[in-house]
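Troubleshooting log. The previous run stalled partway through. Resubmitting the same two chains, unchanged.
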Amino acid sequence: MDQVPLLKSVLATRGLVTFSVAGSRYAAPVEEVAGLLDADRLSALPNRTAPVAGVVAFRGVVVPVLDLAAALGVEESHAPTAYAIVLERGTDRFALLVRGMPRLVPARDAQLREQPAAPAEPTETPAVHAVYEIDGREVRSLDYWSLMDSIAPPAAFRLSGVGGR
Amino acid sequence: MTDAERGHQNDPNTLRPPSIASAPAAPIFIVSLVATLGAAGVVYGLGDLIGLVVAVVIGIAGAAVAAFAAGKPPAPPEAKASALLEAASAEDAKPEPPSRFRGEPWASLYRRAAGYIEAQRSATLAVQEVERLRNELEQKSASPDSFEPRPSHAEHELVGGGAASEGSDVAGPVETSGTADRVREAVEEAVAPIGQGLAAIESELAPLLRSLQVAGTNSEGAPNGHPAKMVDALVRTAADGIEDLAAGLMRANELAIVAERVTNRATLLALNAALEATRSGSEAFASIAEETRRLAEYAREATDTISRLSSEIEMKVGETIGSIQSSSEDAKAAVDSIRTGVASSRAVAPETVQALESLLGRVRALRARAEGVAASPAAAAAASPVPSPEPVPPYSLPAAGDSPTLQDSEPAPSFVTLDASAPSEPLETQGAESAPAWGDVTPAAIPTPDSAGSHDTFGSRSIDEPGAPTEAEGASTEESDAAPSAPPSAEPPVSSSGPQVVPKIPDWLEGIGPRDHR
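Second attempt completed without errors. Output:
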């Protein structure tokens, strides 16, 4: 992954929820995070296929859970605890299954790097929404919605009624 | 030494003077005369007639004196030995030899002879005393109902010597109460130490026997032995404790896991609160998020403490379990060793207990016997063998393995006869070599007082045994080379038919009772 230059502009978010997947640090803006859940509340689905891990109830709504490590195609080491980060955009919700406790980083503690140019041809890796530097480490913010759309089209969720999509 | 050798040694014809040789008188006279005449011839040749005469006279006289001196027979050693013996056996004999026996080997012979004769006198007095006591007891047992004190006849025996004891067991009817009291006191004084010694032995044997019996009972009741079972049970208890401890440790780990989950929930709650506060920008949410965060931190610290303590406990428990397991292995090895020892000792224990029981029974019987004798001398005398023309010993110790009680069928102890009129013949006593005749005595042939035994007689002038030596004497003579002071109980009985028989002093009577009659 190429080094992204820092942007001198002010962050467009109040904070970041950071988490680790296969040793890499990722982040999601707090404005899109609806909540954090314990993975023991996850319910598995029959005939499920990766990267869908199952569903979880969040505030009375069944939310699909996506295993981010499986979606990114990386091998995740075994972790004692897993958590679900519920992303919300409007009425659409889905959750990312991550290992390890997420962190909440205020915007003042993060520095935004310059956003890299969009690739000319589409790749299998999800698009990087932004790159931050927190505590000297690079943290990437992915376009999780496009990743979710590539796995489960919104029409499917709309027909099933899961996630309000 | 065979009998032939002893006979050859005792033969007076084979006596040899120690070292003096007699020179022939005639050759000395001739040589002296020729030498004198030769000297006279020399003087005559010089022309001096008077000197010649004087030389001849002096030569003849000197030759005569030399011949007389050479022809005089020396004093025979037999005579000197007899003189030495007489001097040593005199009443006023001194320990140091007189001037005529100052030279060696006569001085050492004199000292040894004096020592032997002194010991012989002591032994004679002791035998007489025992004989007197035996006669007293025999007379009491003969007439227990009409027990009367004896007269001072026994005392007279002690002072008067062995010849006076002849026929003393049928002493006259004149008796006094003082003698009976002295006899009773003497018997009590003689028996009391025996009873005390036997009581001490019994007190030592009885607890030992009881402990062995208890140990045997326990080992029979418990197949593996009581201590072994205790150790085995202890090992099993330790193993059970180890299992319980491991289960408790697992529960402690579960508790730590639960605390970890609670902490995670608290952290997640704090994170959600902070997320809402960040999203909304509300101060109320921020304060709630802060308190929740502190709560989560507190829970985290507590969880860390619990985890650390649990780890430490787990480590210590692991060490303890390891040490207990090692100790259990050692204990099992010890149990196996104990089982082996118990099995081996169990095989020997019955024989030991049986032997101790037998020994304790004998000690008790002896003690009862001694107490009975001390309590009633008359009754003890009645229980002893009845006086008869045949000599019967008043005391006899059982041989090894025999019953300690006195019985008529028991072999009588050895005897030596007391006969002052016996001829001066070499004394044959059991347990000692044949006494050499004083005529051919040599330093090597004279037994020392220690090697001759404490009850042997010395010399042959006052104590002698008539008749030919018995078979037992030959055997005892052979045994005396290896064990010159064999115990009386091991000696074979010797039947005596002499004019009067005096029992030998048993070892256990040595030093007991009034003895100072010298």
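Takeaways: DSSP finds eleven helices and two strands in chain B. Chain B touches chain A at residues 264-265, 267-268, 271-272, 274-275, 278-279, 281 (CB under 8 Å).
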